[in-house]
Amino acid sequence: MRKSSRWKRHYISKDIAAMAKEVRVASIFSLWQSTDTSHDRFYEDDGKVVYAEAIVHCTGRVTCIRPLYKHVFPLKLAQGSHLSVYIYKTVGGYMEVSRNVESMLIFCHAKATAHIKQMENAILYNQKVSLSVINSTTNPTKMAPACSPTNSLHVAVIGAGAAGLAAARELRRESHSVIIFERGTQVGGLWVYTPQTEPDPLSLDPNRTVVHSSVYDSLRTNLPRECMGYRDFPFVPRNDDASRDPRRYPSHREVLAYLQNFAREFNLEEMVRFETEVVCVEPEGQKWKIQSKSSDGIFKDEIFDSVVVCNGHYTEPRIAHVPGIDSWPGKQIHSHNYRVPDPFKDEVVVVIGNFASGSDISRDITGVAKEVHIASRSNPSETYQKLLGSNNLWLHSMIESARKDGSIIFQNGKVVQADTIVHCTGYKYHFPFLNTNGYITVEDNCVGPLYKHVFPPALAPTLSFIGLPWMTLQFFMFELQSKWVAAVLSGRVMLPSEDKMMEDVTAFYAKRDANKLPKRYTHKLGECQVDYLNWIADQVGAPPVEHWRAKEVHGGYLRLATQSDTFRDKWDDDHLILEAYEDFLRQKLIYSIDLFFLDAKKSYLFLSPLLCRDGRLFLCLVAMGRYIHNLPENIVALQHAMAMLTAKLDDVLRTVGREEFTGRQQRISQVQVWHANVLTTKNKFDDLLSTYEAELQRLCLCGFCSKDLKLSYLYGKNVSIMLTEVEKRSSQGDFDMVVEAATFGEVDEIPIHPTIIGQERMLEKAWTLLMDDGSGMLGLYGMGGVGKTTLLTQINNKFSEISDRFEVVIWVVVSKSATVRKIQRDIAQKVGLVEMGSGEKDENQRALDIYNVLRRRKFALLLDDIWEKVDLKAVGVPYPTRDNGCKVAFTTRSRDVCGRMGVDDPMEVSCLQPDESWDLFQRTVGENTLGSHPDIPELARKVARKCRGLPLALSVIGETMACKRTVHEWCHAVDVLTSSATEFSGMEDEILPVLKYSYDNLSGEMVRSCFLYCSLFPEDYHIDKERLVEYWICEGFVSEKESRERTLNQGYEIVGTLVRACLLMEERKDKSYVKMHDVVREMALWISSDFGNQKERCVVRAGVGLREVPKLKEWATVRKMSLMNNGIEEIFDSHECGDLTTLFLQRNAFVKISGEFFRCMPHLAVLDLSENHSLEELPEEISELGSLRYLDVSYTCVNQLPVGLWELKKLIHLNLEHMIRLGSVSGISSLWNLRTLGLRGLVLDMRQVNELELLEHLQVVTIDISSPSVVKPLLWSHRLVVCIREVDFKYLEEESMRVLTLPTIVNLRRLSIKRCGMREIEIEKTASSSSSSWNKIHTAPYFSNLSKVFITKCHGLKDLTWLLFAPNLAFLQVSFSGQLEDIINQEKAASVENAATIVPFRRLETLHLSALRGLERIYWNALPFPCLKVIHVEKCWKLRKLPLDSNSGAGGKELVLSYGDREWIEKLEWEDQATRVRFLTSCRWHWRATQ
Ligand SMILES: Cc1cc2nc3c(=O)[nH]c(=O)nc-3n(C[C@H](O)[C@H](O)[C@H](O)COP(=O)(O)OP(=O)(O)OC[C@H]3O[C@@H](n4cnc5c(N)ncnc54)[C@H](O)[C@@H]3O)c2cc1C
C-alpha cells in the first residue's frame, strides 16, 4: 500500500489487514514499481521484492491515475486477462464501496470462505471483462466474452505435477474455484524422486503397487533450464540456497525445488488434497462426478462443473516385443523401475531404445557393467558402432530375436550373451479412472478424439486434458493449455462447435495417416511445436513463443540427438542464453544478471541478483565491455600462450619419436589424446586469428565500443575462451612420462560388404572351433571366391566385441607371393615394432623381436590366403596353446596346407545353398531390376543357378545384371552362361583369374593336365574316380608302374590333390566319385582354350543336346573333344585331327560311325563309345587308331567286333561289358597289351577263357560265369583268379554244381549269384587248411576287398556263413531264396578256427533281406554293426529276432530299420526294452515291390 495521509492509511490498512495475508505501506518515493501490469511483483527501494496481489493508491488527487472505471479501476493498468488489479481511490465518498472491493480482491488471494470468493470473483470478473472490452485492441474477438461471460466454475484438477499446478494457477487466475486431487504426499509429480520401485520390474502386473515417478538418480534435465520453465516464473538458478543446482541442465532435484517454489509462490498448495486418489470420473448430467479415495481408505463422491486431467503419462510402461523373449532366461526391467546402475555390475546389458532415457541409462550403466549394447529401432539394420567416449558401449540396430541359450541376436547379425534387457521404450497414456462410456479411447497410444490434444469435442469444455503432447516445451505448454482451458471455461474464449472440432480432429488424423505416421505419434509435436504453442497463445491473447526459446529448443534437440553424451555440458548458444536473460530482465522477472562461466565446460551459469535500477544496461556493459575493450590485449596473450603450447608440443613429440623408434616403447594414451587436442586447438586458433584484423576494424570509441556490439562481443568472448583453452592445453602437456612399454591397438574392424548371406552358420561354427579350448588353431579352406576372406573378416570383427579378452588382433594378408619378411613386417607394424631405418635386421632377429613382444600378450593372428605352410616359429609367433590362450586362424584354398599347418580337422567353407544363393543374387541385382518385368525373376533364378552357389560368381554376375531391365538381356545372359560362360561380362576379368590362382598353384604339368581333363565332362557330372584315373593312365598323364595298384594309387593321389585344392569335390557316400564346380569348370575350359585365344583346342559340348557333330574351323588344332551325353546319331565326315588324343562320344544315339571318321586321328589315345545303345557296328577303320589305349564299347548293340580291332596293339583298356548282342570275343588274345578288360554280361566259352589266359599283362577282368564248364577252369586258373574284380554267377543248375567252392579272390569287389541251384558255398582249402570240413577253415581274409554281394533266387542255399570271410562287406542283398535259414550259421561258424575273434559285418552299411521264407536268424547274438545304416526286411516271416541290442549301430548315424510288413514288426522280439525303444523310433514302413 502506498503511503498516504495518516487517517487514510490507518483506516484502509487496518480494514484490509483484518483479512489479507500481508499489508505493506510504502512511500511513493521508495517504491520501484513495475510497469508491466501482467505481474504481481513490486519492488521496494531497499532491494526487497514483494509479491503483491494488489496496490491500493491512497495518494491523493495529485497522483491520480486516469481514466478510472467506476472511480476505482485504472483502465491503463488493469489488463483484462490478469488478476493483478490496481485500485485507485481518491474520493472519500466512495471509500466504503471501494474498500469492500479491494478487501475482497486481496482476500481472494488470502483466506476466504467459498461464499465470499464467489462474490469477489463475480465482481472482479465483471470488471475485468468490461475492461477487456475497452482495452483489447490487439484481438477483440479473443478477448471478448463468450455467450456467458461470467462463468466461474467449480473445477477438479487431477494431479499436482507440473501440469496440475499450472492448470490450478490459471484456473484460479480466471476466477474458478479449484480443488487439486493428488495421490502423492507432495507437489511435483514425476519429479518427486524415490528410490523405491515397483515389485514387478516390467510393471506388467495390473494389480501391482504403482510407484508414480520414473526419475532415476542421475537424471538431469534434457532441456536448458531457461526455456524449460513456465513463462512468467523462469527456471533460473538461485544462489540464495547452497543446496540448489545452478547448472544449465540441472538435476531432477532442482526441478522439484523449482516446482515447489512455484507452488509456494502462487499459494497453490492450499488447493491440493494430498494423498487423495481419484478412482472414478464420470459424467453426471451436465456435470462430473468424481469419486476419490483418501489414504485412510475412505471413498468420497463429489460433483464438479469441470474436470481437468493432469495425471501425467510417464508411469505406465510400454514394452518392446522381442521374438523369442519368452524362453530367454535373462532379467528384464523397464526404465520406469531403473534408479541406479549398481545392480548391473559386471553384467552384459542390452538397452532397448536410444532416446532420452535410453541414452542416459545406457551411459549410466557403462560405468559398472561389462558391456552395454543399445538396440534402436530407428537405426538401419546394418548399424553396429562402438560409441565414442566409452570402451564398452555399442550401438546396434533392433534386436532380431532372443534365444533360450541367453543370446540376443541383433538385426546386424551380431550376437551377444546378455544378462539383462532394459526397456527404455517409453510409456502409455493411462486413465484408469476415466469413464466416458467409451467416448475417449487410447489406441496405440493415441488418446482421442481430442481437439488440439486438449478438448474431447463431445465433452468439451468441461472435460479437458493438460500435458498430453510430447517432444515439446512441457511446462510452457502446460501453462498455455491451462490458460486456454481456464478462459474457455469462463466463457472468455470460445471453442468451435462440436462438429467443427470433430472435423478438425478427423483432418488431423487424416494428415497423420497420409504422412504414414503410426498412431502412437499422434501426440508428438517435435518440429511443429512452435506452431502449436503459438496457436494456443493466439487463442488466449498471449505473446507467441520467444525467438530465443524457439531457437534453444530446436538446438537443444539437435544436441540431444547428436551429442547425447555431452550436450548437457557443452553448447554453443551463449547468445541465446543472453537473449533469454535479457528478456527476463525486460519483463522484470529477474532484476540483473552477471554471467560467469566458472569451469572449463561452461556448465555453470550463475546469476547474481544485484539491485540495479537499469540492470539491463549494466549487464550489457559489464559482460560485453570486458570482452570488447580487452580484445587486443587478449589477442597478444593468446598468441603468446599458443607459442608456448606449440613449443611444448614439439618437445614432447621429439622425445616420443626417439623412444618409439626403438619399437619397444609407445606413447602413452594421454600424449596421444593431448596431441590430438592440441592440433584441434591450433586449428581453432588459426581460424580465430584469421579474422582478427577485420574484428579490430569493427571497434570504435578507442576500443570501448563496437560498430556491431553483438559480433564484437562474441568474437571477444571466443578469444577469451580460446585463451583459457590454450592455457589449459599447455598445463595438460606437463607429463611426467611420455612413453611406456609398447602395447598394442585393439582390433581394427575391417569393413565388410553389407550383403553377406549364408555365413551365419559358418561364422558360428568357425568361432566355436577357434574359441573352444582346443589347439587354438583354425584352418578354413575352400575354393576361390567361396567367401573365406569374408568369413575371416567377420571373425576379426567379432574379436572387437570381446576386445577385453585379446590384447591384440593381427590381420595379415599373406597371399601367394608372401614371404616371412612380409608377414613379419605386418605383424611388427601392428604391435608397434618400428623398423630401424636402413640397418636391416635379418629374419631371425626380427623373429626374436616379434616373439619377445607376443609371448607376453594374448594375441590372435589371422592369416588370410595362405598357399603354403607359414612357419610360425620362423616368423616369431609363439605357437597358440591352451595355456597361453592365443589363437591363430588362417584361410587357404588347400586342405593340404591345413594339414601342413598342423590342423587335422580344418573347416571347409562351402558354397551357398540354393536358397541362400538366390537370396544373395536377388539382393545384388536389386528389387527394381527384378521387378521390371514379370519374366525376369524366373530368368534371374536360372542365371543364379549357373553360379552354383559361388558367392564370387553370384556377386559379380549379379552386379553385371543389376542394370539389365529387359527380358532380352536376361535371356541372352542365360544363353551365354549356358553355351560359353567365359564370354559373360566380368567372367574373364573378375571371376576366372581369382580361381586360376588355385590352378597356378598346382605343382607340375601332370597334375594340371589331369585337372583340365575333368572339364571334358558335362556340368555337374559325377565322375567315377577309377574311370577318371583310367583315362589319365591311357592319356599318359599318369605313368604306368610295374603294378597296376601303384599306378592307380598315383592317380588317386592326384585326385586327392585336386580335391584338397578345392578344385574337385568328392561325391557319393563312399566318395568314389568327384565333381567339378561349374565355375571351376569354366575356368578349366578357359585355360584349355589358351584363355579364349584358341577356342577349338579343347572342344567340349557335353550334355548340351547336340544332334550332330559341331562344325569346327580348324579340326587340326583340336586336342580334346567331348561330345558325350548328346543325341548325335551319325558321323560321316573325315577330318584331319592330328592333335586329337581324347574323343568322348559316349551316351549319344549313334547308329553308325563311318570308317572315314577314324582315318586321320593318328594320336587318339582315348575313345569312349559306351552307352550308344543303338550302335550296331564298329567300322573296320578303327584299326587306323594305332595309338589307341582306351576303348569303351560297353552297353552298345555291336554284335561283332571288327577284325581291325585286333590291330590295336597299344590298347590297354577295353570295355566290352553288357554288349548283349556280341556273340564272341574270339581273337582277343591278340590284344596282348591289355591290362583291364570288361566282359560282364557276356557269355564266355572255354575257348575264350583259354584266350584270356594268354593275356599276360591282364590285371583286371570283370566277368560272368554262366556255364558250368567254365567255372572250374576260370576259378582254378591262378592267372585269371587274381584279375577278377567283379563276377556274376548265373543260371548254374543244382545238377551241374551242388557246391560252389570259391577260391581266394583278393581283388574281388563285387559278387553276384543269381538263379543258381547250389546248396552250399564253400571256401576253397588253402595249403594250410588241410581238412575239408568247416571246422578247419582258415580265417585268412579270403575276400578282403569284397564290398558288395547280391544273392537272389538261389533256392538251395541254407546259409551264407562264408560271408565271415568278407570282412569289408558293405552291402548285402539276399532275396527270393526260400531255403535260406541262417545268414551266418552258428554251428558252421563254430567250426571256424578262432571263431571267437571274428565279429562279422563290421563294415556292413546296408542289409536287404526280402522274400526269404525260411530265414530264422541272421546271427545268433546281437552284433555291434558299427557302420550299419539300413536294415530292410520284407517277407521274412520266420525271422522273429534281429541281432540287435541297444548298443548296435551306435557308431554312425541313426540306424534305420525299414520293413515291408506291419504285422511282422509288431511281432518282432527284441533283446530287451531298451533295444525296443531305441529302434522302434527309427522304424520306417517301406514297401518295396519285390518280385
Ligand atoms: C525420465 C523423464 C525425464 C524427463 N525430463 C524432462 C525434462 O528434462 N524437461 C521437461 O520439460 N520434461 C521432462 N520430462 C517430462 C515430464 O513428464 C514433464 O516435464 C512433467 O513433469 C509432467 O508433468 P505432469 O504434471 O503432466 O505429470 P506428473 O509430473 O507425472 O504428475 C502427475 C501427478 O498426478 C498424480 N496422479 C496421477 N493419477 C492420479 C489419480 N488418479 N489421483 C490423484 N492423483 C493422481 C500423480 O501422483 C502425479 O503427482 C521427463 C519425463 C521423464 C519420464
TrEMBL record:
Protein name per the record: Flavin-containing monooxygenase
Keyword presence, Flavoprotein: yes
Domain Disease resistance R13L4/SHOC-2-like LRR, residue spans: 1118-1410
UniProt family annotation: Belongs to the FMO family.
Domain Disease resistance protein winged helix: 1016-1084
Requisite cofactors: FAD
InterPro entries linked: Apaf_helical (IPR042197), FAD/NAD-bd_sf (IPR036188), Flavin_mOase-like (IPR020946), FMO-like (IPR050346), LRR_dom_sf (IPR032675), LRR_R13L4/SHOC2-like (IPR055414), NB-ARC (IPR002182), P-loop_NTPase (IPR027417)
Entry EC no(s): 1.-.-.-
Keyword Lipid biosynthesis listed: no
Alphabetical keyword list: FAD, Flavoprotein, Monooxygenase, Oxidoreductase, Plant defense, Repeat
Domain NB-ARC: start-end pairs: 759-930
The organism's place on the tree of life at top rank: Eukaryota
